[in-house]
Description:
Mean pLDDT: 77
Structural class: mainly alpha
Amino acid sequence: xxxxxxxxxxxxxxxxxxxxxxxxxxxxxxxxxxxxxxxxxxxxxxxxxxxxxxxxxxxxxxxxxxxxxxxxxxxxxxxxxxxxxxxxxxxxxxxxxxxxxxxxxxxxxxxxxxxxxxxxxxxxxxxxxxxxxxxxxxxxxxxxxxxxxxxxxxxxxxxxxxxxxxxxxxxxxxxxxxxxxxxxxxxxxxxxxxxxxxxxxxxxxxxxxxxxxxxxxxxxxxxxxxxxxxxxxxxxxxxxxxxxxxxxxxxxxxxxxxxxxxxxxxxxxxxxxxxxxxxxxxxxxxxxxxxxxx
Length: 294
């Protein structure tokens, strides 16, 4: 980098840092807090450096403008980050609230996610994710656990390593007893057990490998609700809508397990309407459950 370009880059870095320092200083003043000694020292150092530069009045005016621009960019970036964090926090709280509100509905012991709830609102059903195939790590851990007793080192073998070893045992078993016995000596196992494993692998190993290569997640299961769960979902939908309008995703998070407070039952606003409807339908559900148990 040319000296002039390097000097310009250093110059802009100092301006950016100084702009950030002025924000920290102003916040201390707003909060009636003392300005940290280190911050004050750095600012004085930068101001002294700029004062010593042989700059024209226009250049000094440009510096002040650049500092204000850098301050604005800092504050805008902070605002965006705060908004994004608030959105993330609210989404997580809303998801938690939805799961609490919908525990047991449609056989979902952990409740519905917000995505499942939205799908239900749009289609009248929701899907549960299919089971994913085991990961490579899971396969290795399971195979090592199964083969640990065969390994003289006591570590077990990875999934792919054990398949290769079974290939060697099967090939040796076809070729000669001597070769098979020589390979079998590498394991802490009865040779007859290894013969059976080799034979089984020869018969079924290819099919197993093909299944693994084609192993895909199970298709999603679509869940529809019965009349009781539909009624429960309607009430919870009203709760969620009110919660969203109130911009307070934690407000009803414990409603599923906590009794409805008396002041909510007496409230004349929409909150009270929801509370009374919730209480009524929960009592109907409880009576239905008692009658079914009787």
